[in-house]
Amino acid sequence: MGVGVESVGAKRWPGSVPQRGDWGRDLVLFLAHQHSGLSLKELGREAGGMDYGAVSEAIRRFRKRVSMDPSIADVVERTCRLLKI
């Protein structure tokens, strides 16, 4: 999923994972949560050891951002098309 995120303008994966507030990281968490079947704990481990509560909060904030910012919603749509999800 990181490759798809790079293709739509996010920072290099996995270099973006540990950076707090990076929308690329949050996009990956958001899409992985929706499409991978991984738990929040598993996503946190894959994202460099994030606590499941931090993963949950990042996803919640990103979901809100998607609903309020059409450009971010477009990035989500383009990433999904690119990844065929």
Count of alpha and pi helical runs: 5
- Major sheet characteristics: none
Number of strands: 0
Summarize the helix and strand pattern as letters: HHHHH
Poorly predicted ranges: none
Give the amount of beta strand, in percent. under 5%
The CATH class label is Mainly Alpha
The helical percent reads 55-70%
Going by CATH, the homologous superfamily would be: DnaA protein, C-terminal DNA-binding domain
Mean pLDDT: 84
Number of structurally distinct domains: 1
* Gap from first CA to last CA: 10 Å
Account of the 3D structure:
With 85 residues, the chain is mainly alpha-helical. It has a single domain, classed as Chromosomal Replication Initiator Protein Dnaa, Chain: A, CATH 1.10.1750.10. It has five helices and no strands. The longest helix has 17 residues. The chain is globular.
Show the helix and strand layout.
Elements: H1 2-7, H2 23-35, H3 40-46, H4 52-68, H5 70-83
Helix pairs in contact: 2-4, 3-4, 4-5
Concise structural overview:
The protein is mostly helical and 85 residues long.
Features:
5 helices; Chromosomal Replication Initiator Protein Dnaa, Chain: A; globular; 85 residues
